[in-house]
Amino acid sequence: MAVKTKRSDETVTVMAETAPAARTAVRLTLGDRIYDEILHLIINLQIPEGGRLPTEAQLCKLYSVSRTVVREALSRLKIDGIVASRQGQGSVVLRRPNAGVFAFPFVSSIADMQRFFEFRQLIEGEVAALAASRRTHEELVRIRAAFDAVSRALSQNEPGIEEDLAFHFAIADAAHNKFLSSPLLSARDNFVQCIQFARALSTKPNEKIGQRLEVEHRLILEAIEAADEDGARAAMIAHLTNTRDRVFLGG
User: Fold this and answer.
1) Is the Cβ–Cβ distance between 91 and 50 less than 8 Å?
2) Which end of the chain is more exposed for a tag (fewer CB within 10 A), N or C?
3) Residue 209 and residue 52: Cα distance in Å, rounded?
4) pTM of the predicted model, to two decimals?
């Protein structure tokens, strides 16, 4: 990923090469940049779980930013479960992200990828619940066919990216709400990135990944088949949480 940054008081402009013939400019806040920088700090200095981060004052000096910006970044790291505040210790590391997350061309930043997973959990959880109550017989057949296609692809050690997308989009269509399905369809490229990252960064063999995905997808499918709205929502959120962990923790 080719990146050039230009500092301003409020934002950083990053030129990200997302395709061989395309370059796009994205706007990042200083909070986004410091979020990423602290993640680099945790990984590069190999701060162990339970280890302490530099103080706020030290981080301000290190990155030449205000205390407000540092606190914004630390707050987001706390929300993501990476650091926590401990009385008398300052900020300590709860978990160290997989170092491989920095090796792939994110659309803009690691912080944005975290936010994208939050978006998916919020939207797709409700989409699955609606699909459970509204799906027609024909839509259920389509969802099951997409499930079978994903399982078949993964069992043959194929990426199964298009099949995975078809599964999620079939569920979105079955929700019968264009205001929910349209944002998902428009985010197709980010979906592809998420799936690619999850497959590439997992520490488990491909066969194990496929088995885990099949179980997660099956729970979603069975809840939708049973018209179990709460079960479908919970199964989808659990699947996306596990996918996020496979990306950031290599699980």
Assistant:
1) no
2) N
3) 33
4) 0.65
